[in-house]
């Protein structure tokens, strides 16, 4: 079997498509990861403090999101919602919304378990010092949760990046879409998807390193 990777790396067109696709995948990952984390934080806080009514809505939302496939959510948001509400968005906006909603459910459950794992002795001691609930939450619960749950949160964030490949199904020109385009022109499927695999691994390791650096510079100081 003759491998012909040169058909990919010798073509400025293909290299440009791969570069643009990688930027799209990384950009959507970062944007949906940040937005999903912020939404998840609100959902987890509502569940932790047992806010009346909102607690049940939050729990139902999380269970629904975590028990339905991302591809189904993506298709519903991209094709169902525009029919229901009569609006038109670029497909990358639909992808951003779908990824944000999907991963907010997973982030929320990770954060909720982190909030709940705070030692009761520390909470009782803080209450004995007459600290407000806001101070206890901001100064005791949140820092410990982020430190303890950082491995799970970072793994979920990297998984978010790897999952962005499904957005090519609605026409978003991400990294996977770039590979499919090149494959349809060169018919070198093996070489194309080996290249995609290497790129996904490289970007995943890069994101892991960046997250670990951020942890060491911020939360790591609290551990030390």
Features:
224 residues; 10 helices; mainly alpha; MetI-like fold; single chain
Furnish the topology, listing elements before pairings.
Blueprint: H1 6-9, H2 12-48, H3 54-66, H4 70-85, H5 91-116, H6 120-128, H7 133-163, H8 175-186, H9 189-217, H10 219-223
Helix pairs in contact: 2-3, 2-5, 2-7, 2-8, 3-5, 4-5, 5-7, 7-9, 8-9
Indicate the CATH architecture: Orthogonal Bundle
CATH superfamily: MetI-like
Gyration radius, to the nearest Å?
Answer: 21 Å
CATH topology: MetI-like fold
Note the total helix count. Answer: 10
Mean pLDDT: 91
Judging from the principal axes of the Cα atoms, what is the shape?
A: globular
Largest pleated sheet: none
Task: Write up what this structure looks like.
This protein has a single domain, classed as MetI-like fold (Orthogonal Bundle). The protein is 81% helix and 0% strand. The chain has helices at 6-9, 12-48, 54-66, 70-85, 91-116, 120-128, 133-163, 175-186, 189-217, 219-223. The longest helix has 37 residues, at 12-48. The radius of gyration is 21 Å and the shape is globular.
């Amino acid at each position: 079997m003759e491998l012909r990777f040169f058909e990919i790396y010798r073509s400025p067109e293909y290299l440009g498509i791969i570069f643009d696709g990688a930027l799209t995948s990384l950009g959507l990952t970062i944007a949906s990861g940040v937005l999903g984390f912020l939404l998840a934080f609100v959902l987890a806080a509502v569940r932790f403090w047992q806010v009346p009514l909102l607690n049940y809505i939050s729990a139902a939302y999380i269970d629904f999101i975590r028990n339905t496939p991302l591809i189904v959510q993506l298709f519903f948001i991209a094709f169902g919602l525009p029919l229901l509400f009569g609006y038109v968005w670029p497909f990358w906006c639909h992808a951003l919304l779908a990824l944000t909603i999907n991963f907010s459910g997973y982030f929320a459950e990770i954060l909720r378990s982190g909030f709940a794992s705070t030692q009761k002795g520390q909470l009782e001691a803080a209450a004995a010092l007459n600290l407000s609930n806001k101070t206890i939450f901001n100064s005791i619960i949140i820092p410990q949760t982020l430190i303890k749950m950082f491995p799970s949160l970072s793994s979920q964030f990297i998984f978010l990046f790897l999952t962005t490949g499904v957005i090519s199904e609605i026409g978003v020109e991400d990294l996977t879409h770039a590979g499919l385009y090149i494959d349809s022109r060169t018919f070198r499927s093996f070489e194309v998807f080996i290249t995609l695999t290497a790129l996904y691994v490289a970007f995943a390791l890069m994101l892991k390193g960046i997250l670990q650096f951020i942890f060491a510079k911020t939360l790591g100081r609290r551990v030390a």
